[in-house]
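Quick one, tokens below:
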């Protein structure tokens, strides 16, 4: 599974694809990551900033609450943020898990 929940925090493994036509969730990447396309290029941290902005908007989380646990310079990243109702709804509506 590409995400884990520990108390009130979510850790997500993301395969980032920079320089895409739009910011979007693009399905599972293997068994343990979710692919996210990002408009910004992978130059001077622009893609990471855009990824944080996209996740914050998607899951109603403050950008300052999103933390890179690993992979900041890699295509596969581990990112942690607070568990929100919006994230729970997204998981359930996309068939990624039963009730949380």
């Amino acid at each position: 599974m590409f995400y884990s929940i520990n108390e009130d925090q979510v850790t997500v493994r993301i395969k980032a694809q920079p320089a895409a036509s739009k910011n979007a969730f693009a399905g599972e990447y293997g068994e343990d990551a979710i692919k996210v396309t990002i408009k910004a290029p992978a130059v001077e941290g622009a893609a990471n900033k855009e990824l944080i902005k996209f996740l914050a908007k998607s899951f109603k989380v403050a950008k300052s609450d999103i933390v890179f646990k690993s992979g900041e310079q890699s295509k596969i990243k581990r990112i942690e943020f607070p568990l929100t109702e919006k994230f729970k709804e997204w998981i359930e509506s996309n068939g990624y898990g039963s009730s949380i």
